[in-house]
Amino acid sequence: TSNWEQTPFYYNLVTNKEDEITWHISLQKIEVLLGDNAYGMPSIILGSNVLISIYNSILFDDIIATPADVEWSSDTSLTSYGNEYEVLHYKFTCSNSEHTHPIEHKIMVMPNNYLIKELSTNNTYKLRFEDYNSGVALFKFSKLNIEN
Predict the structure, then answer these.
(1) Model confidence over 38-77: pLDDT tens digits?
(2) Which of 13, 20, 63, 76 is a good FRET partner for 47, with 20 to 30 A between their CA atoms?
(3) What is the rounded distance in angstroms from the CA atom of residue 88 to the CA atom of residue 3?
(4) How far apart are CA 107 and CA 90, in angstroms?
(5) Mapping DSSP to helix (H, G, I), strand (E, B) and coil, where does residue 61 land?
């Protein structure tokens, strides 16, 4: 992705290109309250043109077709910051009793496999986020062989 702190990143899985108009996944800033302050946090947002499933029953590389037991959700906020299956998690711990904030601010990438069904084509993609560093997220995805 590009750096979310400079501009939101929008990606179209079908065309395999950045696309601000017809996008399926986005890395962008959302405002989050931590204590009495609001902070801009990176968050993965899904477009309204997809369904999502979290599928961790097998390894990412072993997913080659849409699993028969997949359960789809239209809740596109599942991957967003602070939600159950967030992609980017802010580690907020501090072991120094004199600090009121963490010694090291760290964004962790959660190890989930996401299945994305694109609604206009009915194609299914597997998606996994690999790394996050300095405002940029690294992800991999591929279209699955069998669409349901």
Answers:
(1) 777 889 999 999 999 999 999 999 999 999 889 999 998 8
(2) 63
(3) 14
(4) 5
(5) helix
